[in-house]
Each structure stands twice: as structure tokens, then as C-alpha cells.
């Protein structure tokens, strides 16, 4: 194996991604991933087009949904094609620079997803707890600024963590026991001091795996208290119904991650459960929002009715 070396820093020419090496029926799993990828791209693209083309959806909540769909497409493209490439082309080697790029984009879009869910939780909190001040607090300008800050901050932090990988010397092994260039897995390979990288890893976990669910839980505690103050069950149900889509999306995103942390499975089981925890939410999110959002369903129904009307007219003639 050729090594590029700068003084005492050793960088491998390639990393070897194990994927599901030696796992029975792994072919079917890769086909399943391709189906997930196809549905994710089509579904999120439809959501983006619907929100972009219809002015009635140019509101704070749908700006958040639009941003989530963008992050879902980015994450799906960063993760699943590289896994499918391993199966179709039997190519488990990835160059050092491509590995860092893969790490950056997967981590970046995951972090964007987490804080988009936080912003959507805040949107629901203000809508239910402070309904009279909603338009003054949460408006399109506010959401645009918030998401600009999120994208800028995430770019800075993920760029920092990825660039710090270049100071590590990989002289022990170039085998990555994961389904992509996982930051945590790569941190176990260097033979020089990686304390700074470990600190950044803990910082990222605190920012993106601990803080977001904590803030979301706090938001829903406030929402629950506000619901208890509503006198009628009909009013409570109506207010809670506006949160169903967000709660389902939050559950599909964080529950699989929690299960992985608790179960601590074997390598292959970790790869399957880990890849599903990242691949499934982008597929489920557009389905959840389309099925549970009356505005989007009404728009789709109108489009279908408009297209079927000429066909029905021609048949009647």
C-alpha cells in the first residue's frame, strides 16, 4: 500500500470500507437500500417542488419542512450511493480525500437535520403556547435568518472536525469497520495523539445528539402544559394534531439512534441498524408530512383533479 507521508504524519492512499463483508443475503439489503434511496429522492423532491411553487405554503413552518427535505436529499446522496457502489462494483476502497469528503457531507447533512427538527419544535411551541404573538415572533424573515445561521455554524464545526483528521497518522490500519467513513470509527485507527479530535467528537455529540432532543423535549413539556390549560378536549386535540407530523419525524430520527446506543450490537448488526437509522428518516419524512398535512394533501388533490378533468371530458365526448 502506497503511503503519502509528511514528516511524521502518515496518510494511506486508500481506506478499506468493510460494509457487510461476509454477511449472508447482503445483496438483498443493498437492493433494499436502493429502493429507500429512490423513494427518498423522489419524495423529498416532490415536497420541495410543492412548497416552492405554491405561495400558500410560503410560511415559517413550511420553510422548515423545505429545509428538512433539502437536508434529506443531501444526506441520502452522501450515504447510500457509496454503499450501493460497494455492492455493484465490488469496490470497497475509497481514496483518502474522498473519505474525508464523504465524512464531511454525511455529518454535515445529519447535523442540519437535527437542528431543523429543533427549529420546527420551536415553531410548534410558539404556535401553541404563544398563539397571539406567533406572527410577531416566527415569520419568514426569522426562519430564513435561523436556517442561515444553522447552515453556517454546521459548516464551520463539521469543516473543523474534518480538517483536524489531516493531523492524524494512520500507520496501524486502513480498514474502516463501517458503512461509510465514520468519524468515530476512524478515530480508533491513528497511531499518534488524537485527543483534540476526541474532544471535537464529544463537542459534536453534545451539540447534535444531546442538545437537540433535550431542547425538543423541553418544547413539548411547554406544549403539554399549554394543552392542559385548554378547557375543551376538542381544543386540545386540534392543537395537538398540528404536532403529529413533527413528533413522528422526531421519533423516526432519534429512536433508532437511541436503540443502537442501548443495544451495542455486533459489527454487522451495527452497520445494518446504523445505516437504516440514517437512511430511513429521509424516506419517511416526506411521506409523514404529505399524509399528515392537510394543506399539502389538498394541493396534491387539486393537481390530480385538474389533470383528470380533461381526460374525463374527452371520455364523455
UniProtKB/TrEMBL annotation:
<keyword id="KW-0297">G-protein coupled receptor</keyword>
<dbReference type="GO" id="GO:0004930">
    <property type="term" value="F:G protein-coupled receptor activity"/>
</dbReference>
<keyword id="KW-1003">Cell membrane</keyword>
<keyword id="KW-0716">Sensory transduction</keyword>
<feature type="transmembrane region" description="Helical">
    <location>
        <begin position="247"/>
        <end position="265"/>
    </location>
</feature>
<dbReference type="Pfam" id="PF13853">
    <property type="entry name" value="7tm_4"/>
</dbReference>
<feature type="transmembrane region" description="Helical">
    <location>
        <begin position="28"/>
        <end position="53"/>
    </location>
</feature>
<feature type="transmembrane region" description="Helical">
    <location>
        <begin position="100"/>
        <end position="122"/>
    </location>
</feature>
<protein>
    <recommendedName>
        <fullName>G-protein coupled receptors family 1 profile domain-containing protein</fullName>
    </recommendedName>
</protein>
<keyword id="KW-0325">Glycoprotein</keyword>
<keyword id="KW-0472">Membrane</keyword>
<dbReference type="GO" id="GO:0004984">
    <property type="term" value="F:olfactory receptor activity"/>
</dbReference>
<dbReference type="InterPro" id="IPR000276">
    <property type="entry name" value="GPCR_Rhodpsn"/>
</dbReference>
<keyword id="KW-0812">Transmembrane</keyword>
<feature type="transmembrane region" description="Helical">
    <location>
        <begin position="271"/>
        <end position="292"/>
    </location>
</feature>
<keyword id="KW-1015">Disulfide bond</keyword>
<keyword id="KW-0552">Olfaction</keyword>
<dbReference type="InterPro" id="IPR017452">
    <property type="entry name" value="GPCR_Rhodpsn_7TM"/>
</dbReference>
<dbReference type="GO" id="GO:0005886">
    <property type="term" value="C:plasma membrane"/>
</dbReference>
<keyword id="KW-0675">Receptor</keyword>
<keyword id="KW-0807">Transducer</keyword>
<feature type="transmembrane region" description="Helical">
    <location>
        <begin position="142"/>
        <end position="160"/>
    </location>
</feature>
<dbReference type="InterPro" id="IPR050402">
    <property type="entry name" value="OR51/52/56-like"/>
</dbReference>
<feature type="transmembrane region" description="Helical">
    <location>
        <begin position="199"/>
        <end position="227"/>
    </location>
</feature>
<keyword id="KW-1133">Transmembrane helix</keyword>
<feature type="domain" description="G-protein coupled receptors family 1 profile">
    <location>
        <begin position="43"/>
        <end position="289"/>
    </location>
</feature>
<dbReference type="InterPro" id="IPR000725">
    <property type="entry name" value="Olfact_rcpt"/>
</dbReference>
Amino acid at each position: 500500500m502506497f503511503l503519502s507521508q509528511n514528516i511524521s504524519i502518515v496518510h494511506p492512499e486508500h481506506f478499506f470500507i468493510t460494509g457487510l463483508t461476509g454477511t449472508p443475503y447482503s445483496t438483498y439489503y443493498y437492493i433494499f437500500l436502493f429502493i429507500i434511496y429512490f423513494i427518498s429522492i423522489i419524495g423529498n423532491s416532490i415536497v420541495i417542488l410543492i412548497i416552492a411553487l405554491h405561495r400558500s405554503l410560503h410560511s415559517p413552518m413550511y420553510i422548515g419542512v423545505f429545509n428538512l427535505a433539502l437536508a434529506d436529499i443531501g444526506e441520502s446522496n452522501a450515504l447510500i450511493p457509496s454503499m450501493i457502489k460497494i455492492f455493484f462494483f465490488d469496490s470497497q476502497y475509497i481514496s483518502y480525500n474522498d473519505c474525508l469528503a464523504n465524512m464531511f457531507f454525511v455529518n454535515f447533512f445529519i447535523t442540519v437535520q437535527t437542528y431543523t427538527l429543533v427549529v420546527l419544535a420551536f415553531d410548534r411551541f410558539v404556535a401553541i403556547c404563544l398563539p397571539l404573538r406567533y406572527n410577531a415572533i416566527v415569520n419568514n424573515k426569522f426562519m430564513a435568518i435561523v436556517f442561515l445561521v444553522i447552515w453556517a455554524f454546521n459548516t464551520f464545526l463539521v469543516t473543523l472536525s474534518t480538517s483536524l483528521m489531516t493531523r492524524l497518522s494512520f500507520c496501524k490500519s486502513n480498514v474502516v469497520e463501517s458503512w461509510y467513513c465514520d468519524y468515530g470509527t476512524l478515530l480508533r485507527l491513528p497511531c499518534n495523539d488524537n485527543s483534540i479530535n476526541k474532544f471535537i467528537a464529544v463537542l459534536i455529540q453534545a451539540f447534535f445528539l444531546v442538545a437537540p432532543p433535550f431542547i425538543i423535549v423541553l418544547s413539548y413539556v411547554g406544549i403539554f402544559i399549554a394543552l392542559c390549560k385548554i378547557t375543551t378536549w376538542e381544543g386540545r386535540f386540534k392543537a395537538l394534531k398540528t404536532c403529529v407530523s413533527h413528533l413522528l419525524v422526531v421519533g423516526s430520527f432519534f429512536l433508532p439512534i437511541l436503540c443502537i446506543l442501548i443495544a451495542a450490537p455486533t459489527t454487522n448488526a451495527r452497520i445494518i441498524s446504523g445505516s437504516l437509522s440514517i437512511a430511513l428518516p429521509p424516506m419517511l419524512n416526506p411521506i409523514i408530512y404529505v399524509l399528515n398535512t392537510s394543506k399539502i394533501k389538498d394541493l396534491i388533490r387539486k393537481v390530480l383533479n385538474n389533470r383528470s378533468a380533461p381526460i374525463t371530458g374527452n371520455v364523455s365526448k
